[in-house]
Design a protein that fits this description.
There is one protein chain. By secondary structure, the chain is of the alpha+beta class. It folds into three domains: 95 residues, Rossmann fold (3-Layer(aba) Sandwich), CATH 3.40.50; 60 residues, Dna Ligase, domain 1, CATH 3.30.1490; 84 residues, D-amino Acid Aminotransferase, Chain A, domain 1 (2-Layer Sandwich), CATH 3.30.470.20. 32% of the residues lie in helices and 24% in strands. It is built from eight helices and 15 strands. Strands 13-12-11-14-15 form a five-stranded antiparallel β-sheet. The chain has a four-stranded parallel β-sheet with strand order 2-1-5-6. Helix 1 crosses helix 8 and helix 3 crosses helix 4. The longest helix is centred in the last third of the chain and has 22 residues. The two termini are 19 Å apart. The model has no long low-confidence stretch (mean pLDDT 95). The structure holds adenosine-5'-diphosphate and magnesium ion. The site of magnesium ion has 3 residues, from loops.
Length: 305
């Protein structure tokens, strides 16, 4: 029986759904935290040790969480993901894809560089540069959003509508990530979340916010969206995932008052509980089917050949 490790500190609802989905493929699951993984370089070919795998490597690794910590701890945790891939263990999403999307500056750079519509964004360590951006944008009648570089679930976002709103850089670990605020067209605060697996948009929802921050964890509500009626949402979300080379991702998009659709951010470790509540097919099953078909089965075939 194949064995897959789901890397997470809180298996919870997502872990239970993934376990059920893997079981249908006859794949056994173990949960482990990246905090408990280590290097032991005296073991040729299996120098990365995961909890419960002292003498062998798992057949695959599904990443559901990279715990925060000191810079050294986070780098070590990412090293583990990179090393597993080097040792031939499929990692879903892989370490590079997670790095590109956990870091909002890199995500914005890759999107803009690939010509994907995304709001104008500035990232700097300089308080003076950040203040100059705020001054120019406010003077031009626009607003900005300041975000933690490694943020998620709508935590720590700040809307900057006046010059005095710029917080001290120290509140954001010394990095100013400033994105032009996009006023959504069509009334109310809302945006879209599109879930893409292996380059194909498989589910989508419209999120209606209690405030301008629409995350489900911030009280946003979900409404189903039929992607066949929203070809532009589908195309843009898929293009964003292609540019960032994701196995799968949750893509946040917003349409401005002129009808222009833009990608706000791309999540390489997205939650899908809210989206599942308005989606008939099991998202966990679609993810696991893709992981097993494209990574586990092909690997098994290679080792037979
Ligand atoms: N540039 C923006 N213009 C308008 N709303 C935004 C902008 N950036 C973020 N938001 C709102 O805040 C939410 C969270 O922002 P996001 O960049 O997705 O960060 P997180 O990683 O915390 O989800 C978005 O879903 C959207 O509702
Ligand atoms: Mg988001």
């Amino acid at each position: 029986m194949s064995e897959v490790v789901i890397l997470t500190d809180e298996p919870g609802w997502h872990g239970a759904r993934l376990r059920e989905a893997f079981l249908l493929h006859g794949v056994d699951i173990r949960f482990a935290s990246l905090r408990d993984c280590r290097f032991d370089l005296h073991r040729p070919g299996r120098s990365v040790v995961l909890p419960g795998f002292e003498d062998r490597l798992p057949d695959g690794v599904f990443v559901r969480g990279v715990p925060g910590g000191t810079l050294e701890q986070v780098v070590l945790r990412l090293d583990v993901l990179h090393a597993l891939k080097v040792l031939g263990v499929p990692v879903y999403n892989d370490g590079r894809a997670i790095e590109r999307t956990v870091d909002k500056a890199m995500t914005s750079f890759v999107l803009a560089n690939a010509g994907i519509p995304t709001p104008a964004t500035w990232v700097t360590e300089s308080q003076g540069e950040a203040a100059a951006v705020v001054r120019a944008e406010i003077t031009a009648g626009r607003e900005l959003v300041m975000k933690p570089l490694f943020g998620s679930q709508g935590v720590g976002l700040r809307r900057i509508s006046a010059f005095g709103d710029l917080p001290p850089g120290a509140d954001y670990d010394g990095v100013y990530y400033l994105q032009r605020y996009v006023e959504p067209g069509g009334g109310g605060w809302h945006d879209w979340r599109v879930f893409v697996i292996d380059g194909v948009a498989v589910a989508a929802m419209k999120r209606q916010g209690k405030s301008w921050i629409t995350n489900v964890s911030q009280g946003g509500t979900c409404a189903p969206v039929d992607l066949s009626e929203h070809e532009d949402l589908r195309a843009l979300a898929q293009n964003a995932c292609c540019a960032l080379q994701m196995d799968y991702a949750g893509v946040d998009l917003i349409r401005d008052r002129d009808g222009r659709l833009q990608v706000i951010e791309v999540n390489g470790i997205p939650a899908w509980k809210g989206l599942q509540s308005v989606t008939r097919d099991s998202i966990a099953q679609m993810l696991v089917n893709d992981f097993v078909d494209r990574h586990l089965r092909r690997r098994a075939l290679h080792s037979v050949a």
